[in-house]
Amino acid sequence: IVSSEQYNELLKSIINEKTELKASEETKKNTYFIDDQSNSKPNLRNIIEIESKSYLGIPYVWGGSTPEIGFDCSGFVRWVYKKSTGKLIVRTTKEHYNKYKNHLSNEINNFEKGDLIYFKTLPDRMISHVGIYLGNRKFIHAPNERESIKIDSISNYWEKNLVGLVSVNNI
Q1: Structure confidence by residue, pLDDT tens digits, 81-93
Q2: Active-site residue, from 83, 96, 113, 129
Q3: 161 is catalytic
Q4: What pTM was estimated for this model as a whole?
């Protein structure tokens, strides 16, 4: 397994300024291997974690949905899920709520790595922020225009605004 920094450098060497990146039905899923001579592949939850961490430090851009431009929260999870699972999920948090509301769980002890985690950060919306749960009460997300993709703990502000989680199995 390569580090996030090594993966980002590899991406930079492949992508040039004319490359147009966006998650679509044509976006190809990445392939992952474990460098341990066993030729085994990591499980889906580990793949989602690896893919998500490869974008650490990419800037937040409202409406952004590619690593070349930057990501907003839903653009980030859409890109990561398409690249790691091959599934193109809905684009906005409003669409997430409409599609997955019957699968939302707020039992934090049942959260698993790779699941989508939702927050209510705006008073007029049931869900207004999404990230990817990494385990140990941590998640990765595109927080706001003052920050880049980063890992946060589910405590204080985030714990207070936690709505729940949707399992990768229900996506």
Answers
A1: 999 999 999 999 9
A2: 129
A3: no
A4: 0.79
